[in-house]
């Protein structure tokens, strides 16, 4: 069995990076794949309307190295979602995830996202249509409640209804979604985290795969959650502090081959090769360097690394020299810090 199938079949959602609009584009996902071979990656949310009326290639194209990769869909019309699943299968995605957790007003106007939790029968109908349209797994990402609904029974009944439609994997953002009065950013921070709700879902539905999401920032926290659920999804911490991903394979997938490259120089060389190919396709260098800005955050040289990779004058002319210069600045600052350290 090849490494990809071994990872997907044995530990499909043990660790993943959340779908984040305007963040987890194909460039970020390629960079994350360089850091972890077995982390499951998710696209930004793509609406069914964008696939019905927009540029399908732009929305669905990804790099072969990104496997295992899931497409997250936003929508509430079963026929449109089924069509999107057929497209996803044609493009080779490993999973399609239905968004039932986004609280933004724009998403609500489209009658999908977290507001769908108030209509579990509709979600079940959507899941059935999606499952009938393709052979890949259909998963659901949701909150534990909406607005002032604080009862565990609400999310338990929601999961039970969708389970009966054939969904086996639920990604639980362990906060309520406040549909009016809070911004999407506030919805990620203000409603209290209730990890116990996700733990109870695993107890009540032992046959389901329950993945927990929300406020998780360290591998230590990931390991603690894995004592109670099947998987952990990390959000902005993986993007803002991507060094987090470097320990994932060895710690969470010890029986599977790990990721390469092992050094910053190898990492930059691999990503630069990727950047050259994307520049040839018309991608701007600014979009390509953005996922790298948080690399080595807080360590010696990270400020100079960010400054060089975000230099607007150099980015504007697609100056590929920024990669070598940023790495040199990182190495120089580390060397200086090492020489300045006291010797016992």
Describe this structure as you would to a colleague.
The chain has helices at residues 3-10, 26-35, 48-53, 56-60, 78-91, 105-109, 120-133, 152-164, 184-187, 195-204, 219-225, 236-240, 248-252, 264-280, 285-289, 302-309, 312-316, 321-340; strands at 15-17, 40-42, 46-47, 69-74, 95-100, 138-146, 169-177, 209-213, 231-234. It is an alpha/beta fold and 344 residues long. The chain has 2 domains: 3-252, Alpha-Beta Barrel (TIM Barrel); 264-340, Four Helix Bundle (Hemerythrin (Met), subunit A). α8 links the parallel β6 (138-146) and β7. α2 runs antiparallel to α14 and α7 (120-133) runs parallel beside α8 (152-164).
> Which range best describes the helical content: under 10%, 10-25%, 25-40%, 40-55%, 55-70% or over 70%?
40-55%
The number of helical elements comes to: 18
Determine the CATH topology of the largest domain: TIM Barrel
Q: Which secondary-structure class do the elements indicate?
A: alpha/beta
**Computed CA radius of gyration, to the nearest angstrom:** 21 Å
């Amino acid at each position: 069995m090849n490494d990809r199938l071994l990872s997907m079949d044995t530990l499909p959602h043990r660790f993943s990076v959340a779908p984040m609009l305007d963040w987890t584009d194909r460039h970020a996902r390629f960079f994350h794949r360089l850091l972890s071979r077995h982390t499951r990656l998710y696209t930004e949310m793509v609406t069914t309307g964008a696939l019905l009326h927009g540029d399908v290639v732009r929305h669905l194209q990804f790099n072969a190295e990104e496997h295992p990769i899931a497409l997250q869909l936003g929508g509430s019309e079963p026929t449109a979602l089924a069509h999107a699943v057929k497209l996803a299968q044609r493009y080779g995605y490993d999973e399609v995830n239905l968004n039932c957790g986004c609280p933004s007003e724009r998403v609500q106007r489209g009658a999908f996202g977290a507001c769908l939790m108030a209509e579990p029968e509709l979600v079940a109908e959507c899941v059935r249509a999606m499952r009938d349209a393709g052979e890949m797994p259909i998963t659901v990402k949701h909150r534990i409640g909406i607005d002032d609904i604080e009862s565990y029974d609400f999310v338990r009944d929601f999961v039970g209804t969708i389970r009966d439609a054939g969904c086996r994997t639920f990604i639980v953002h362990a906060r309520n979604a406040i549909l009016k009065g809070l911004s999407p950013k506030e919805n990620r921070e203000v409603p209290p985290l209730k990890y116990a709700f996700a733990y109870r879902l695993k107890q009540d539905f032992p046959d389901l795969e329950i993945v927990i999401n929300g406020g998780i920032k360290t591998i230590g926290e990931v390991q603690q959650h894995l004592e109670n659920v099947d998987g952990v999804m990390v959000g902005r911490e993986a993007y803002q502090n991507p060094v987090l991903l470097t320990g994932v394979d060895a710690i969470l997938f010890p029986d599977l081959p790990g990721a390469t490259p092992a050094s910053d120089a190898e990492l930059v060389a691999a990503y630069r090769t990727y950047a050259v190919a994307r520049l040839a396709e018309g991608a701007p260098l600014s979009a390509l360097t953005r996922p790298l800005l948080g690399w080595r955050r807080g360590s010696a040289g990270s400020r100079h690394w960010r400054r060089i990779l975000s230099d607007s004058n150099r980015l504007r002319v697609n100056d590929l020299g920024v990669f070598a210069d940023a790495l040199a600045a990182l190495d120089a600052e580390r060397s200086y810090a090492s020489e300045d350290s006291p010797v016992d």
